[in-house]
Input
Amino acid sequence: MGEKYYATVAVDVALFVILHKRLHVLLVERGHPPFAGAWALPGGIVEPEEPLVAAARRELAEETGWERVPYIAQLAAFGDPHRDPRGRVISIAYWAMSPRAGEVRGRDDAARARWWPVDALPALAFDHDRILDCAYNRIRNHVAQDYRYLFHLVPAPFTLAELRTALEAVLGRPVNARNLRRFLLAQGWLKHTGVRSSGRGPGRPAQEYVPLPEAIPTSPEDRCLP
Amino acid sequence: MGEKYYATVAVDVALFVILHKRLHVLLVERGHPPFAGAWALPGGIVEPEEPLVAAARRELAEETGWERVPYIAQLAAFGDPHRDPRGRVISIAYWAMSPRAGEVRGRDDAARARWWPVDALPALAFDHDRILDCAYNRIRNHVAQDYRYLFHLVPAPFTLAELRTALEAVLGRPVNARNLRRFLLAQGWLKHTGVRSSGRGPGRPAQEYVPLPEAIPTSPEDRCLP
DNA sequence: GGAATAGTGTCTCTTAGACACTATGTA
DNA sequence: TACATAGTGTCTAAGAGACACTATTCC
Output
């Protein structure tokens, strides 16, 4: 294998959050061609000495202004020969989750960044619709298989109802409250903080919980993926 | 994103088969530096106009002499800045399965290719031990979650005992024959071919089955991954 | 007959689903 | 009080695990 052929290597990131009881993803508006004015996943070129996941984190930080997202994992490589009209670009896609869903500032004042509900997306640049499809599948499957991933989507301390709302947002279907409660409490993942949330509208106040540190899934970064 | 930086893009493939009731993977002996003489996953550079999975298939065909493996899926991208001493090489790894486990011929007479049991591997070139670790995890998780993947590891027609042997090889632990049989027959995945295998040693001959075409998992190639 | 492999009957335990019920807050 | 949300008791059905049993072949 002689280094015969070179391609551009980029990263793109699908960052998911829960907003207004719905699953949202971060998109940025492109300021330059190609696809100027279209919405796209945050991303960019990998630097020569930069690990892939570091590039993903850097691009995310540049778009959000946040220093660190608590969970990020590789999604897949997208390398269709003509996915970028400028030439061959292989994109390593990542997916990430954050319990913070506050203001995001764009890369500069020209570029806008905002949260979009995953079930009402705009048209996307490049093959980002495919990437996002893939990422959405991934987060659903992961969360469905291990509810502990919810701890990265819901800020602690949380009530069991908040966990359920997040789960329903990710799965896109209602979840039986009784069964979820029974399951979560049986796992021993949660520490009960005597505190009760109250004052938020009518209804009985709920108990608040914090996840045990060892129950929080660690970010695989670029380690082995299941 | 101006095309500032270029890297070499390669593919590597972990092809799994069942051999002598054990899970094996295809490795090739490197003929040239770096890592001359060491064993490595089959792989090579992606051509300019070549889709990634096509490159993976091509490299596999060159190493095995087989035209087509029935299942191949993307594993992950490995892009550590110094994983290749010659410079920056991003490798897109694939994993594949085949029910054929016969002779493989090397790329040429100089390069050897052979099957290695996954639980007794030699030292590997580059970061291929990490890739293979990842691939082994992947096949285990996939098969454990959906036994239909076994149809790509066991040549049809097969007996339920053959399926069980393959499953045990992949999972690395014994599986209860009664429960597996009950489960498989309940799924309606199998068509009973009246044929009975016989003449192979002592014991009652077993019924033979063929998987229904719609029960055979299709190769995702580069479509969305779960 | 004995060894080896294929296949069955059936009990238990765990878990998910469903749903009616009670508890405690706000307006 | 009515209403909304939190939380409990409990029946049911499905599936996994275990294990003793029968069936059919080769030697």
Q: What stands out?
A: The CA atoms of residues 4 and 88 of chain A lie 14 Å apart. Chain A touches chain B at residues 1, 3-10, 44-52, 74-81, 86-90, 92, 130, 133-134, 137-138, 141, 222, 224-226 (CB under 8 Å). Residues 176, 178-179, 182-183, 186, 198-199, 201-205 of chain A lie near DNA strand C (CB under 10 Å from a C1').
